[in-house]
Amino acid sequence: MSGAHESSRTRQALGHPRLSIVIPVRNEGINLKIMLKILKAVVEVPHEVRVVYDSPNDDSIPVVKNLQPAYPYLYGVLNDKGRGVINALKAGVESAQGDFVLIFAADEVGPVMAIEEMLELMDGGCDFVSCTRYAHGGRRLGGSPSGRLLSTLANWLFRYVAGCVMTDATTGIKMFRREQFSRFNLESKPVGWAVAFEMAIKAQALGLKIGEVPIVSVDRLYGGKSTFRLTSWTIEYLRWFFWGWRELRRAPTRMKRSDVQVKLPAAFVES
Q1: Residue 218 and residue 183: Cα distance in Å, rounded?
Q2: Angle between helices 230-250 and 194-205 (to 10 degrees)
C-alpha cells in the first residue's frame, strides 16, 4: 500500500500475525513513542502495528522509522482515502494482515492492558469486542469535562432507550475479525471517533457475537491537544444515535445484555 514502510524480509520474519493493531494518528509523535515501547514490551502474541497518518509531514513518521529496527513488525501507512479516523481505519485495515484487528488512539494506555482478555474473547467465538469505561469496574480519567459528560450520557441513553447491549458503544477501543470489516459498510463523517460508535451499532444490528472488557482509560497520555469539538461531535453522534435506535428496533433478533460475553482483566478480579 502507498506509504507503508515495510520490507519482504521483516514480513517473512513475522510470518502470519494473529493481531493487527491499527493506530490512527495526527502529530502524536510524543505519545506514539511511549505507546509503541509499551506495546513491544507487553504484547506477546504474533502481531503487527500499523500507524496510519494523513500527511507525509506528520511528526509520527520519524518515530515509526526510528523504532523499526527494534520493532520490525511496525509499519507506517499513509492514509490516501481522505482525512479523519474513519478513513485512517479503512486504510489501516486494507493493509493489515492479522486475523483480528484492534483499533485505539495513541494517547490511551488503557487498551494495552486489555489486549490479552480481548483476544481470549475472540478465541472464544466473539466477532466484535469493545472495551468499556462504564461497567464491570471500568473508569474514564482525564479528557475534557464536556466530552466525558456527553459520552457518559450518550451511552446510558443508548443502552436504555435504543436497546444497545454494549455499555460503552462510543469508545474507540474495538477488536474485530478482519474478515467481517467489509460488512460494516462504514459511512460516518470524519468527525472524531464517531466511526467507532457506528461500528458498535452495526455489530449488534448484524447479529455478531459481542464481548466486553473493562478498562481504566486515561485520555491524553502525554501532552498534545485533544481534537474534541462539542458542536460537530454532538451532531454526528446524535445522527448515529437515532439511526441506531431505529435499526436496533428493526433487527430480526433482539439481542439481550446477557448475550454479551464479559472478560475481566486479572487486576480487576484481584481488586
Answers
A1: 31
A2: 0
pLDDT in tens, 19-71: 999 999 999 999 999 999 999 999 999 999 999 999 999 999 999 999 999 99
Number of domains in the chain: 2
Closest CA to 237 of 181, 160, 154: 154
Quick one: 113 and 77 in the same domain?
A: no
pLDDT for residue 12: 38
Residue after which a domain boundary falls, among 106, 124, 154: 106
Q: pLDDT tens digits, residue range 191-202?
A: 889 999 999 999
pLDDT the model gives residue 229: 58
| Three-state secondary structure readout of the chain | CCCCCCCHHHHHHHCCCCEEEEEEECCCHHHHHHHHHHHHHHCCCCEEEEEEECCCCCCCHHHHHHHCCCCCCEEEEECCCCCCHHHHHHHHHHHCCCCEEEECCCCCCHHHHHHHHHHHHHHCCCCEEEEECCCCCCEEECCCHHHHHHHHHHHHHHHHCCCCCCCCCCCCCEEEEHHHHHHHCCCCCCCCCHHHHHHHHHHHHCCCCEEEEECEEECCCCCCCCCCCHHHHHHHHHHHHHHHHHHHHHCCCCCCHHHCEECCCHHHHHC
Domain span at residue 19 reads 1-106
Whether 29 and 44 share a structural domain: yes
